[in-house]
Amino acid sequence: MPRNMSFSLTTPQFLNRTKTVTRRLGWTFLKPGDLVMGVEKGMGLKRGEKVKRLGLIRIVDVNLEPLCCITKEDVRREGFTKPIHTIPYFIEMFCRANRCHARTEVTRIEFEYLETPNAED
N or C: more exposed end of the chain, with fewer CB within 10 A? Predict the structure, then answer.
């Protein structure tokens, strides 16, 4: 059974498949070829709530880099495609959500989509 990875901040980007890269604190154990189930929310579920599966992905590449090294192309690959989605915008949004700073070393995870879940999942 694949491990779940939450895409709570980027669910629309995951669903419309504009997101092919994600950055995480941790997740250094991933290797190319690993299968992961994208989910809407993995933690903080209320009583009776179930995990909503978004789709199965395969890890293509994993490496560590400072957050501030993100490129304009990778901001786009993170699913942020509007003109206001600049490098500083992405760094500030990531740091606010993860309580870190621009020089924090993050795990850059590149992936490909394998499937979408059934409607009843």
Answer: N
Pairing of strands 35-39, 3-6: parallel
Structure tokens at 1: 């059974």
SS (H, E, C) the chain: CCEEEECCCCHHHHHCCCCCEEEECCCCCCCCCCEEEEECCCCCCCCCCCCCEEEEEEEEEEEEEEHHHCCHHHHHHCCCCCCCCCHHHHHHHHHHHHCCCCCCEEEEEEEEEEECCCCCC
What residue spans define the domains of the chain? 3-115
Q: Which tens digits make up the pLDDT trace of 11-46? A: 999 999 999 999 999 999 999 999 999 999 766 666
Query: What pLDDT is stored for residue 120 in this prediction?
Result: 47
Class of residue 12 by CB neighbours under 10 A (exposed 0-12, middle 13-18, buried 19+): exposed
Q: Hey, what CATH topology would domain 3-115 get?
A: Sulfate adenylyltransferase (3.10.400)
